[in-house]
Specification:
Elements: H1 4-11, E1 15-18, E2 21-24, H2 36-48, E3 57-64, E4 74-83, E5 87-96, E6 99-109, H3 133-141, H4 146-154, E7 157-161, H5 169-172, E8 178-185, H6 193-204, H7 210-213, E9 225-236, E10 246-256, E11 259-268, E12 273-285
Antiparallel strand pairs: 1-2, 2-4, 3-6, 3-9, 4-5, 5-6, 7-8, 8-10, 9-12, 10-11, 11-12
Helix pairs in contact: 2-6
Amino acid sequence: MTTPTDRLVGLLDLERIDLNIFRGRSPDESLQRVFGGQVAGQALVAAGRTTDGDRPVHSLHAYFLRPGRPGVPIVYQVERVRDGRSFTTRRVVAVQQGRTIFNLTASFHEPEPGFEHQVPMPDVPAPEELPRLADEIRDRLGELPSALRHMERRLAFDIRYVDRLRWTPQELADTEPRSAVWMRALGPLGDDPLVHTCALTYASDMTLLDAVRIPVEPLWGPRGFDMASLDHAMWFHRPFQADEWFLYQQESPIATGARGLARGQIFDREGRLLVSVMQEGLFRKVG
């Protein structure tokens, strides 16, 4: 039986159709658009597959240009911008039905020694002390709505919110624009470091914009806003395993002009800062 983790690994296993051209599957799901984390993760796979594999990715910068259509393959065209002595740069354009929907620039760096410092990890409960997302929603609603039942079947990550989900205007009152979740892939992802990096890239788009919405509406109730990712940037500081628990600390410094900015920090259980993330989203009121 195929598991959600198997399906995620399959999504990241692109078909090479030419030296610098790859094709990725896009599941035919009941969604308005292809999940942005899927496109970012697949684009990073394409970029990484054109390197020698000795240099891990240290940063990516991406723009979501058009909504992708579920069920239609996506072609990733890679430009080999630079192969330097210690840095490698790749540019990727994602095309669907002849139209560019996404572009990404990724930089790969050969590890070097240097000085170190980092901010401390927040003091939060361990993931074992927190309920799974689906269980918390069931406790509140009695059962999962159909859209969330579909999400639970395909979700490849165990997600546990550090703070209880808020549902009513009273619970939302005076809420600060920040959130934190523990995550890990539901099953093993294998030994390829690029797969772990791309899986975490996929996951990084799942909850980051929560921080923008939290003061305004319940995260898992009826939506008053149509939401879409506009861009996404990540900086990878240390190696990691995406099938081990990581804490995703998220906050929103500003929302204005129908756009909200969110930033995130990803820590492992030992408190090491692994990844930094920034994203801007579009928020348009429904109706």
